Amino acid sequence: xxTLAIYDVMKIQDFVFNSNKTKENLxxxxxxxxxxxxxxxxxxxxxxxxDWKAAPYDLKIQNGSQTExxxxxxxxxxxxxxxxxxxxxEKCTKTLSQDILKKTGGMLQISFSVEKLDENSNxxxxxxxxxxxxxxxxxxxxxxxxxxxxxxxxxGDTDGLPAVDKVNNEYLSRSALLKLQAYNESDKxxxxxxxxxxxxxxxxxxxxxxxxxxxxxxVHIDGNNMGSxxxxxxNRNEITQHQQAIPVIREFSKTLDDIFIETFKIVFEKFQDRxxxxxxxxKKYLNKDGNLIIRPIVLNGDDITFVTHGKLGITLTxxxxxxxxxxSPMKLEVAGESIPVSACAGSAIVxxxxxxxxAYNLAEELxxxxxxxxxTLAQKDGKEDIGNWLDYHIVYTGVTTSxxxxxxxxxxxxxxxxxxxxxxxxxxxxxxxLYDQYNLLWRPWCVAGNVDEQYKWEQLKSIFDEFVNKxxxxxxxxxxxxxxxxxxxxxxxxxxxxxxxxxxNSRGIGLPSFNGVKAVFPDNNQTPYFDALExxxxxxxx
Length: 542
Prior knowledge:
The chain is of the alpha+beta class.
């Protein structure tokens, strides 16, 4: 009887970002993106079928077939495999675990679950059981760690693990050595995915920064509700047998991967075209070594992470979400169905020497913040498609707390009533923003999607345009000095803000219109203007 198995690589973020060396971060990301696919090639029987993308509708494993195992899909540190029987599944899983152990120096581990699959099985129920068992296995798993240092052990200079070798006067652990080996192949790996005319910059210190502008942007993008979307497709079309369900899963995974990679390619090419056509832009954003100042870290299905110049993180993310929206809905060859594809993103803007692991965690928190607001408002309006949302945060000093704590400290106006969180009551459920609302924050913003005008990114850009871009017009009263003064005053108190604005109004200087009004706090004790003021030094339009 066939057996269905699902695999999930754990502690990926810790593995990729636990080093303070860029080369090791990049090498680790390549290992993660290859470890499952290559591990399965090494562990599955010789007569197994691996190339699931080549013939998504042709299921090789059938009753009486000679194929002992078949990959259903791989991606993002996950995989699903169908085996001919339990014994083959057990043997291959052991070999896969050993392969991952060797390739990561014991820093990555795998969790899995298996379920029987007969002709009468309801595939959706089997799949649901698989994920439930996987969740339990991950929760109950005891994590092992490499042997820590003993009396005669030297610690690695980059990750604090026991050193096994010395390279270029640095003591390195087994994990660090494996990452460096993979790093040497990183450019080749990304070249296969992207069309580029320049070399990638390999050092975060050389992403185009200048004195006084030494900021980089760490961007994390993640697809919205992709798992539940696939489940809904199978349910709507009443697909219950694995012979029909697996081709749909394959087509969904392949199409999703193609859409996200192609979208990133387009944005990437737009940036390169601007370098060619605009000498001033090229001088500013092609570094002194002639290298691109965009550094992909992860390009894996609907999971994308990249690093770039501090002024380009938000605008490149904006363009990605706009381009992604143009490709929605995606076509699935099942009952001619088209389904929406969307994503949320977080852009953390930090100093060049800010610990990269913390910067990535912040970008991930920002992405979650965008998702939470998007889902809450979608539920409020009864919509299935939540849209493409963006949240960003600029770190001017060190940060050691969560995003919510950080914003409570800096974006709450002293003496002003707190902004109420967005709440939705319906269908017996209550949805609420995971991150609270604050006086000086209107974000996250919806870059593309069907939402109320007050949440649309174009509203913010309109304010930004009147504040900043129209400064070139001699008649525009919003000079840089006034903008800086307004920004600095808004963090003091409600009274200080209104006093300054009354002073500006007496001189005929009014706020830009927002959603048809010009009130500094148009609703819920919140202002959208501070979001625009913070972008003054960190938004370069393509």
